[in-house]
Give the backbone structure.
Amino acid sequence: MKQYFRERYLSELDQSGMVPLGTNKYVASEVYENFAPNDFDSDFGSWIIDQQEQARERVREMLAQCGCLARFNRLAERHIEQQILPFVGAGMSKPSGFPMWGAFLKELAQNDPHVLDKVKQAIEEGRFSDAAQIIADELDENMLAEQIENYFAANVFTPIGPVRLFPELFKLGCVTTNFDHVLEKVYEGNEQAFASVFSGTSIIEAPREAASGENVLFKIHGTATSRLGRVLTTNEYNTAYGNQRTVPGTLNHLISNRSLLFMGCSLATDRTITAMQEIKAMNGAAGLRHYAFLADPGQANRTAKHAELQQAEIHPIWYPVVDQETDHNTWIENLLLALDGGPL
């Protein structure tokens, strides 16, 4: 937790201004850490505890208002039992500089007005895989693969945002539909590198124990550096989701004894949700409940959205969004800090 909060703590210390020593002035945080390291560490620890308590109070108040407090507390109990598996979407990588799918696809089509119009229409209708298929068909499959690598394969970047809290909370694996290397870099930077990374077609080779006993990353839609098992276009979705040995089979295995927690996912109706609905229908009452941190669609729309997600046994924990650029990260950070402390 100190690694996550260090820069913020130092910035707060430095607000008091420069510290004069002799004829020179020095940054306050440097003086404090260098000349009184024990006091610095103690105060830093107390400051972090205070930040967590403030976050828990904000979350308690917010969840009580939207009727999700009891649901969050059940999630927190499952988390204490190490029975939560994070499912990570593109929204968790956006702060680190990676584009959301809609922006990425429109960028690729920008030089051809005819293709761009069709791509925009597909995106507006929520058909992202169709938008990708249009690009593959009309602009070139090889170009699409090359641009996926250009945009998402970067290793020289600094992870930013609440995804950096994951190693503190989730030590037994992650699932993601992202192509980038944000999760790998975050865990490596916290000296908790994944024991294995299974991506694309290799997920069917994952040993059964990897789903529950090791810190393993499942990149169920593949990775930026390989076309094998990549899932982005409609044809690729049909292949990956039409075979129970690949994505649906992997999801069914992963959730056999753990609940998913969706973060950075819009959870609009797509093939992943359809697969979860099929798994629920197959498992019946024996299936586990899953959870999602989701932007609040407003009181008038909550019931309908919850009913849709409930068909996949996914239960939303709403958070308010006024500013699209800041509120997602702020509330997910608060929710994760609250989760780390157990039920509210």
Summary: The CA atoms of residues 102 and 123 lie 6 Å apart.
